[in-house]
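lol ok so funny story. i was supposed to be doing the assay writeup but got distracted and ended up predicting the structure for this chain instead. priorities right. anyway since i did it might as well share w the group, maybe its usefull for someone
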Amino acid sequence: MSKPPAPSDIADKFMLRMPEGMRDRLKTAAEENNRSMNAEIIARLQVSLDASKSATEKQLQEMGHITALTIIDILNIIMNSGDNNREEIIGRFFRDYVAKVKESKPESDLLKFMIENASKTPS
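and the output, tada:
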């Protein structure tokens, strides 16, 4: 009976060219962290990719915050306009806004929250 392949035998492989001296630096770092060079490279790539994802999520949150502040400013202008149809104008604004956001297929939790709650406003 044959032995099943080791995980490293079936894992994706990628040839990599490194600038001069980088291999030695990776070897030293791997030894300091009690890892193989492969494990050191994987760990460092994972940290880099996780940091990039977190930065993108933070940017989306900040954009959502700015959007919310802009909407609040618009609502304040409408409320202070003295127009007798304020409620109708606000209702129309939210219906139009929600329709536009739904078309864009939002990914952020903030936009999903805004859509769900704006959709509950009476017509």
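Residues 37-79 form the longest helix (43 residues). The helical segments are 7-10, 22-32, 37-79, 86-103, 109-118.
back to the writeup now i swear
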